[in-house]
Amino acid sequence: MIRTLSTVLLLFASAMSLEQTSRSPQTESVRPCTLHPVNGRMCVSDEMLRGLVIRYVAPKLPEGTNKNGEVVLHAIIPATGGKATKISVVSGDPALTRPAIRAVRDWIFMAYVYKHGHVAIEGDLHIRFKAAG
Fold first, then answer.
1. Which of 18, 32, 45, 76 is the S-S candidate for 86 at Cβ 3.0 to 4.6 Å?
2. How far, in Å, CA of 80 to CA of 111, rounded?
3. 3-class secondary structure for 39-79?
4. End-to-end Cα, the chain, rounded Å
5. How do the domains of the chain map onto residue ranges?
6. How confident is the model at residue 6 (pLDDT cuts 50, 70, 90)?
7. Rounded distance, CA 52 to CA 120, Å?
């Protein structure tokens, strides 16, 4: 019995160490959305956020920049909908973050309904830039 238990613990410990060494640094970063899901806001996916956009403004590639790239922004939308109340940069090329924020600031979102009431939402938006040509 004790031998079986020690074998199981040994297997579990080795599996945990394998999992820890195989993780990339990007997967270990925790978003505020996943840390505190009960903070008065619902955490939603990029697709859900984009589905609630009723006014979309396309991000413009900065002049003199001729490259593809992606910026990830974290946006908080109030329970009443409308424009994002807070937009922060999660990752991306610094040359592309400013135009991405400018575009998302002008997006207008529908209110999100959950259990017969409006609720504030938050999530990450992936803004992709494509160079002409």
1. 76
2. 5
3. CCEEECCHHHHHHCEEECCCCCCCCCCCCCEEEEEEEEECC
4. 68
5. 30-129
6. very low
7. 12
Confidence (pTM) = 0.69
Q: What residue type is 95 in one-letter code?
A: A
Query: CA-based angle 81:58:75, to the nearest 5?
Result: 40
pLDDT in tens, 86-113: 999 999 988 899 999 999 999 999 999 8
Residue 67: which residues within 8 A CB-CB, separation 6 or more? 93, 129, 131
Beta-ladder partners of 127? 71
| Rounded CA Rg of the chain | 20
What's the CA dihedral at 26, 43, 80, 72 to 10 degrees? 20
Q: Give me the pLDDT at residue 37, please.
A: 45
- Look at residue 124 in the predicted model and tell me its pLDDT: 94
Bridge partner list, 41: 120
For the domain 30-129, what is the CATH code?
3.30.2420.10
Sign of CA dihedral 131, 60, 50, 91: positive
